[in-house]
């Protein structure tokens, strides 16, 4: 499986100053509306999705741009998500007796060109090449790993000489480099991740249980299956705004990121709300005690004690970063031995939470946030699925950026014809996404939406944007 990767070009606009903090070390009185301007996003999700996404991943401190186009620095806020998912995935595949290995980063040019031709998966011009050693030209250019199978498969054939050598179950965590010029976007991979049948439930759990993104489980068509495979299973996610399926796009809003608690680096941020006439040291001590009790209960919590930012600025800052739960402690809370909490997913405020009940209440709220994010995403996804029976209905739904479920004759030439008939403009051609394992009833006599031939199955279709 691939780890956090790098793309060779980028369409995302730099916006380093959109989230500039107040000058450190200097106390400044800043009006709330001015602070909102410092931290607010310039674009709304429903009005300009691409620019909104670009702002969110930068201002939310997920990535920083590098001085080589298409390369990004993954900041701790993003890496922590990867670490949570990798830890889960690694443990699960080891239960299945899959062992980790590592293959070289470099491959010979002849090997890459031949395997690219055999796999029909990528073009040699998409590969990054090493041509020099110091000032000397290499006798033969060396490719930087464009995909893992081109390096691994020749050695599989060497190690597997008969049925007694099976099964061979290996996993590799690594980066791949593609020299692509198709407007790559941070955290979005152009292709569909091919899954082995035995591993599909793990992938589904990653999406649904950790990222709170609902997916459809199914099998790829013969035309879309992984090159060289007998068949390819998949899990498909859908974002109503664009048809791309990732956590940031599904849950994020006009305030910024919305992190599912299971993958959030910080699940709870505790913010003191001091007052010039209050026992501020007592408030700070209460915040520290709150963090300690939450951490002892296994909850990832931090406090924001910075004195050069107002509480309102901090609220906006941690909302932008998507922290699931915000706890506020002010003079009245201190006096009553209680706290106030605000949920990031729906902005619900819960007042008067006794300190004695805090850890249990926080666990309950985090579980509710995780489930609510999934439920809301599923409702939106289901509302964008459109069932069609004819070509005219298909074209109309495609123009509305719907995820389409249609009866199909399951013929590769028909799928190629659908691609050819829907290709044009800046949008990608329509293609089959998957044939769901859970098939709706297919009445006898149902015709294929594209060819008019007898339909054999229901299949999801969509377009890449």
TrEMBL record:
<dbReference type="GO" id="GO:0005737">
    <property type="term" value="C:cytoplasm"/>
</dbReference>
<keyword id="KW-0436">Ligase</keyword>
<dbReference type="InterPro" id="IPR036621">
    <property type="entry name" value="Anticodon-bd_dom_sf"/>
</dbReference>
<dbReference type="InterPro" id="IPR004154">
    <property type="entry name" value="Anticodon-bd"/>
</dbReference>
<dbReference type="InterPro" id="IPR017449">
    <property type="entry name" value="Pro-tRNA_synth_II"/>
</dbReference>
<feature type="domain" description="Proline-tRNA ligase class II C-terminal">
    <location>
        <begin position="391"/>
        <end position="465"/>
    </location>
</feature>
<dbReference type="InterPro" id="IPR004499">
    <property type="entry name" value="Pro-tRNA-ligase_IIa_arc-type"/>
</dbReference>
<keyword id="KW-0067">ATP-binding</keyword>
<dbReference type="GO" id="GO:0005524">
    <property type="term" value="F:ATP binding"/>
</dbReference>
<dbReference type="Pfam" id="PF03129">
    <property type="entry name" value="HGTP_anticodon"/>
</dbReference>
<dbReference type="GO" id="GO:0017101">
    <property type="term" value="C:aminoacyl-tRNA synthetase multienzyme complex"/>
</dbReference>
<dbReference type="InterPro" id="IPR016061">
    <property type="entry name" value="Pro-tRNA_ligase_II_C"/>
</dbReference>
<dbReference type="GO" id="GO:0006433">
    <property type="term" value="P:prolyl-tRNA aminoacylation"/>
</dbReference>
<dbReference type="Pfam" id="PF09180">
    <property type="entry name" value="ProRS-C_1"/>
</dbReference>
<keyword id="KW-0547">Nucleotide-binding</keyword>
<keyword id="KW-0648">Protein biosynthesis</keyword>
<keyword id="KW-0030">Aminoacyl-tRNA synthetase</keyword>
<dbReference type="GO" id="GO:0004827">
    <property type="term" value="F:proline-tRNA ligase activity"/>
</dbReference>
<dbReference type="InterPro" id="IPR045864">
    <property type="entry name" value="aa-tRNA-synth_II/BPL/LPL"/>
</dbReference>
<feature type="region of interest" description="Disordered">
    <location>
        <begin position="1"/>
        <end position="33"/>
    </location>
</feature>
<protein>
    <recommendedName>
        <fullName>proline--tRNA ligase</fullName>
        <ecNumber>6.1.1.15</ecNumber>
    </recommendedName>
</protein>
């Amino acid at each position: 499986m691939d780890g956090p990767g790098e793309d060779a070009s980028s369409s995302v606009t730099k916006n380093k100053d959109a989230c500039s903090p107040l000058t450190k070390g200097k106390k400044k009185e800043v009006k709330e509306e001015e602070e909102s301007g410092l931290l607010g996003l310039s674009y709304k999700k429903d009005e300009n999705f691409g620019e909104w996404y670009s702002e969110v991943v930068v201002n939310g401190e997920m990535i920083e741009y590098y001085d080589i186009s298409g390369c990004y620095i993954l900041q701790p806020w993003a890496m922590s998500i990867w670490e949570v998912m990798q830890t889960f995935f690694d443990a699960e595949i080891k239960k299945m007796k899959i062992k980790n290995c590592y293959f070289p980063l470099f491959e010979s040019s002849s090997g890459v060109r031949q395997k690219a031709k055999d796999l029909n998966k990528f073009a040699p011009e998409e590969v990054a090449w090493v041509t020099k050693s110091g000032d000397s030209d290499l006798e033969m250019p060396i490719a930087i790993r464009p995909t893992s199978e081109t390096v691994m498969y020749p050695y599989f054939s060497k190690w597997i000489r008969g049925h007694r050598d099976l099964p061979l179950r290996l996993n590799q965590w690594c980066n791949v480099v593609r020299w692509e010029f198709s407007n790559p976007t941070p955290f979005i991979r152009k292709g569909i991740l091919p899954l082995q049948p035995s591993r599909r439930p793990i992938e589904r759990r990653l999406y649904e249980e950790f990222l709170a993104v609902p997916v459809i489980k199914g099998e790829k068509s013969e035309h879309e299956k992984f090159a060289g495979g007998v068949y390819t299973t998949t899990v498909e996610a859908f974002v109503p705004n664009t048809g791309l399926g990732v956590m940031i796009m599904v849950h994020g809003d006009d305030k910024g990121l919305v992190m599912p608690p299971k993958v959030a680096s910080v699940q709870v941020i505790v913010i003191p709300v001091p007052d010039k006439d209050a026992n501020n040291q007592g408030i700070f001590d209460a915040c520290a005690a709150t963090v300690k009790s939450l951490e002892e209960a296994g909850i990832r919590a931090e406090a924001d004690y910075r004195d050069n930012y107002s509480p309102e600025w901090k609220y906006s800052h941690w909302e932008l970063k998507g922290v699931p739960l915000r706890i506020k402690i002010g003079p009245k809370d201190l006096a009553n031995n209680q706290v106030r909490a605000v949920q990031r997913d729906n902005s619900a405020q819960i007042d008067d939470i006794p300190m004695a009940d805090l850890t249990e209440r926080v666990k309950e709220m985090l579980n509710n946030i995780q489930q609510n994010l999934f439920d809301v995403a599923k409702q939106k996804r289901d509302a964008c699925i459109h069932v069609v029976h004819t070509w005219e209905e298909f074209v109309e739904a495609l123009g509305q950026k719907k995820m389409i479920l249609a009866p199909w004759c399951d013929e590769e030439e028909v799928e190629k014809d659908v691609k050819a008939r829907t290709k044009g403009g800046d949008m990608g051609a329509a293609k089959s996404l998957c044939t769901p394992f859970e098939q709706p009833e297919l009445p006898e006599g149902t015709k294929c939406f594209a060819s008019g031939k007898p339909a054999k199955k229901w299949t999801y279709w969509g377009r890449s944007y």
